[in-house]
Amino acid sequence: MAKNLHIIPHKHNVTLASRQKSNGHKSAVFWFTGLSGSGKSSLASDLESYLFNLQKQVFILDGDNIRTGLNSDLDFSESGRVENIRRIAEVAKLFQISGTIVLSAFISPFRADRDLARKTCGEGNFYEIFVSCPLDVCEARDVKGLYKKARNGEISNFTGISSPFEEPNQPDLVIKTNIHSKKECLEQLVSFVLPKILLNE
After folding, report:
1. How many CA atoms lie within 13 A of 197 on its CB side?
2. How far is CA 191 from CA 23, 47, 124, 165, in A?
3. Would you call 90 helix, strand, or coil by DSSP?
4. Which of 127, 134, 146, 161 is spaced 20 to 30 Å from 194 by Cα?
């Protein structure tokens, strides 16, 4: 696709460094990936509350919320999923350069899409967090009743059932929600995240 030569990106007078200094912390994108029911949204919500209580600028981008608004025009075909993640990565990048700590909670089943998200947000700004949980445990939880519908053929291209989930080869952090308690998982997250947003004076 040819680039439009008439599009000239706006240059902000307020720099990212100035925003981060004003906030008192660095901004970054923490990208949670894992099967439906693995605990991505729950952990991201707990982390958001924790950071917010520390007076950090933090915001969650969650799959269902994005799907009902920005990406409501996309289906769940492979091409639809690719475009879904591409758009989310661009939004995450905008939040990050605004000085916000972004918690992105999406299944994002394909490695290539997550690699593109990392490239979009930039090395040093992007951290992939694999919320690991066996399929049978996720299915037993079936928080939203989606696995049952997928098994019954009511949902097509469902990750883990009729569509693959490609586990990260080298995630920045692995959280095993089938082994550790919710409190322990949050403690692991906090220990990982806080050093990454520490502002060097």
Report:
1. 27
2. 20, 11, 17, 27
3. helix
4. 134
Largest interatomic CA distance in the chain? 56
pLDDT digit string, tens, across residues 106-162:
999 999 999 999 999 998 999 999 999 999 999 999 878 999 999 999 998 899 998
Q: Within 13 Å and on the Cβ side, how many CA atoms surround 125?
A: 22
Query: Where in the sequence numbering do the catalytic residues fall?
Result: 108
pLDDT, residue 149, reads 92
Residue 40 structure tokens: 């991505």
Q: In this structure, which amino acid lies at residue 159? A: T
- pLDDT for residue 2 is more than 60: no
Q: How far is CA 108 from CA 32, 102, 141, in A?
A: 9, 16, 20
Give the confidence band of 8 by pLDDT, cuts at 50, 70, 90: low
The C-alpha atoms of residue 45 and residue 20 are separated, in whole angstroms, by 22
Which region, left, alpha or beta, applies to residue 142 given φ > 0 means left and ψ of -120 to 50 means alpha? Answer: left
Helices 182-196 and 40-53, axial angle in degrees (round to 10): 60
What is the Cα–Cα distance from 147 to 137, expressed in whole angstroms? 11
Please list the alpha-helical segments (H only) found in 78-181. Answer: 78-97, 111-121, 135-141, 146-151
Q: Which positions ≥6 away from 24 have C-beta within 8 Å?
A: 55, 199
